[in-house]
Amino acid sequence: MRTTRKVSVWPVGLVGGRRYERPVVENGKVVGWYTGWRADRPFAIDMAGFAVSLQVILSHPKAVFKRRGSQPGMQESDFLKQITTVEELEPKANNCTKVPIYFLKRFSMVFVDDRTNRVLFYRFLYGTHEQKRSI
Questions:
Q1: Distance CA 4, CA 120 (A)
Q2: What is the pLDDT of residue 31?
Q3: HSE of 119, CA atoms in CB hemisphere, 13 A
Q4: Are the C-beta atoms of residues 12 and 110 closer than 8 Å to each other?
Q5: Cα–Cα distance for residue pair 69/45, rounded to 1 Å
Q6: Under 8 Å CB-to-CB from 118, ≥6 apart: which residues?
Q7: Which pTM does this prediction carry?
């Protein structure tokens, strides 16, 4: 995430009824999606599976992540279509072959820091997060 220039992507574990979902990467570029639900979405990715540079957000002031108004499961695609293309996505996590994020339950996830191999548990509350513990 730290090296994101525009929009980066990676796999997410325990989501969509699968052990993991991920962008499919060939020659360093996203070419498709391994997902349990609607692979035909423009960006078939969970919101925990991407990061957006602050510079991109600031350069697209009208881009909105809609809480209402998107079709179910289309919020991520609706947002990302406003700021990037699939061709511009930056695959992380060893070309999307490692799973750095795992969902545990609603509003909770585990993040594996690839620099230190520390496992961090996060709980999200009302748009904020708190680090609960490291393992």
A1: 20
A2: 96
A3: 8
A4: no
A5: 18
A6: 112, 134, 135
A7: 0.77
Pairwise CA distance, residues 82 & 40, whole Å: 18
Strands (E), 5-55: 7-9, 12-15, 18-26, 29-34, 50-52
- Whether 27 contacts 66, CB under 8 Å: no
Contact between 57 and 63 (Cβ < 8 Å): yes
**Rounded distance, CA 130 to CA 111, Å?**
13
**Strand-pair partners of 23:** 33
| Interacting residues of 26 by C-beta distance below 8 A, sequence separation 6+ | none
Q: What distance in Å separates the CA atoms of residue 53 and residue 57, rounded to the nearest whole number? A: 7
In the residue annotation, 90 being an active-site residue is answered as no
Q: Which of 21, 26, 76, 130 is catalytic?
A: 76
Per-residue model confidence as pLDDT tens digits over 111-134 = 556 566 565 555 554 444 444 444
